[in-house]
Amino acid sequence: MTGPTADTAAAVHPVKSASSAGGEHGIGYPNGHLGHLNPEEEESLRKFKTYLEEQGAYKPRPPPSHDDQTLLRFLRARRWDVAQAYKQFQATEDWRKANDINVLYDTIDSEAYDQARRLYPQWTGRRDKRGIPLYLFEIRHLDSKTVSQYEKDSETAFTSKAKTDGSTPAKLLRLFALYENLTRFAQPLCTHLPDREHAHVPITLSTNIVDVSGVSLRQFWNLKAHMQAASTLATAHYPETLDRIFIIGAPYFFSTVWGWIKRWFDPITVSKIFILSANEVKPTLESFIHPQNIPKQYGGELDFKWGDKPTLDPTIQKVAVWEKGYSDFPIGPLYWTMTEDGTRLECIASGTVDQKERRDKVCSIPATWPPRTETKKTEETDKPIEEAVKGLSITEGEGAKDKVAAEISEKTAATEATGTDDRAPATVAA
């Protein structure tokens, strides 16, 4: 017998189509994202940036130390509470520094990276109907023997040149190279593909198909500690990178497993998880994803199996100009840099191969975000704003900044004094 039990299904919200999800009550993508902020959210972003700058955690342009879409992820995760968003943001900055996350991604061994990629959610090379990257995770491959060997290799083999304070186990650090790939490669790539409904909104999310078929209760139990530890760190330091999780192939005992897992999630994250029965899989996925982008094993047309390299979206193949003999993205970490004239993005392959650092230009694509009209408008409006700022006395400018900082500091202190914190429980990738 397969499929979720009645109790399990009741614990999960009903699925909305891609077109209706988020359309009601201003909740969900693209609402709360850059270009779709209500006045209160705009004000929260302004206060957040002001306070971060006051604390020395943010430097305004040009270019800013952190882009607006990244800051908005922390605000959405903390329900637009600036004080709580600051706590999570600063904890993340401290964690990144303590574990040399940028060095990890730039110097990780390509084989070590691929070993991690084969254990965790894999980008299919495709997107959902809104242009959000689509990932597949088949949990049955994450058995105790494989995980044990993976953890052993993490302790003994060369992984990267990153130095760590030891607070995060080495066996988990490679996972976060994959999260860096999501935020530094897949999401920017999808942002600059123009054939999507909200092309003016940057992509900061992912859609995930999680296949739990063929997994025994014992295997779930053996993976519990590993997955909980990984999800705790992912939730804390990569907030709001998940849009939907579709769980497929749930066995009859999954209600027991769901009882463990749902404790890691807050209500908002639970609302993003849908456990599908066998007859719900195809129609539900097709409401979010075009058939040509759904893997064949789930009723679609895409020839993609677990462990495969991404099967690239035809739009990517159309717009990419490949270099140095490349015709596909190589294994290992990748990131994008803007050309000096701001018209194209260049894909750089980093990491190490045989402990030699790699910095290969793989391809370039047209830079389509932000739209050129918005860029021009911003340039035109910046000058009068700058002139107005120059007209303020130092006392007036600092006074306004101090007022915001005082408000947030007071709230942060009150939170710490009472010990209350509405931070969400651990999730796989909230």
From TrEMBL:
<feature type="region of interest" description="Disordered">
    <location>
        <begin position="367"/>
        <end position="430"/>
    </location>
</feature>
<feature type="compositionally biased region" description="Basic and acidic residues">
    <location>
        <begin position="398"/>
        <end position="410"/>
    </location>
</feature>
<dbReference type="InterPro" id="IPR001251">
    <property type="entry name" value="CRAL-TRIO_dom"/>
</dbReference>
<feature type="region of interest" description="Disordered">
    <location>
        <begin position="1"/>
        <end position="40"/>
    </location>
</feature>
<dbReference type="InterPro" id="IPR051026">
    <property type="entry name" value="PI/PC_transfer"/>
</dbReference>
<feature type="domain" description="CRAL-TRIO">
    <location>
        <begin position="112"/>
        <end position="306"/>
    </location>
</feature>
<dbReference type="InterPro" id="IPR036273">
    <property type="entry name" value="CRAL/TRIO_N_dom_sf"/>
</dbReference>
<protein>
    <submittedName>
        <fullName>SEC14 cytosolic factor</fullName>
    </submittedName>
</protein>
<dbReference type="Pfam" id="PF00650">
    <property type="entry name" value="CRAL_TRIO"/>
</dbReference>
<dbReference type="Pfam" id="PF03765">
    <property type="entry name" value="CRAL_TRIO_N"/>
</dbReference>
<feature type="compositionally biased region" description="Basic and acidic residues">
    <location>
        <begin position="373"/>
        <end position="389"/>
    </location>
</feature>
<dbReference type="InterPro" id="IPR011074">
    <property type="entry name" value="CRAL/TRIO_N_dom"/>
</dbReference>
<dbReference type="InterPro" id="IPR036865">
    <property type="entry name" value="CRAL-TRIO_dom_sf"/>
</dbReference>
